[in-house]
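Form 7-S
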Amino acid sequence: MKMNPVTDSKSSEDLFLFQKIKEGDVHALEVIFNKYYANLSRYLLLLFKNELLVEHIAQDIFVHLWENRETIEINTSLESYIYSAGRFKALNQLRDARLRESILQSITNHSIETDTKDTAIETAELGTIINNAINALPSRCQQIFRLSREEELTYKEIADFLDISINTVEGQMSIALKKLRSTLKPLHFSILFTA
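Output:
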């Protein structure tokens, strides 16, 4: 298969600039930012129709690129990485909002056992506690949990999507549910995280 010389040259230039970023070159980051920020914003705006969210996410991608430059590995092209990271981050933000809403609805619909000695916790604080517990899961665990609970994908669909085995998905979900039950047990929320 022949490579497109223009695409190949662009990809090589990007990888060179990314290597400079890894070495701490702020100017290289500025070049990449100027090259991709506007197009990334337009792309995200087509997907999410929320200008404020898009602006915030697009900027965050470049901050993340800089702050994690020593550990990020680019397996495709830098351009693909930037677009995928933007889309993933935007989806996570939307999922977090939907998950909070779903949990708050569950809290409203279920009676929650509380000790008379316990201090009453406001619903908004409960949502924050639950969201923090999910965010504290290891990244792969969290990703699989969100795909299962928020996107309502089957274990097979998750396995296909992430190119992993169904056993890995089952194992990671088991870890996620165990950690969430343990963290949230004092609040009597294990009902929300049944397998």
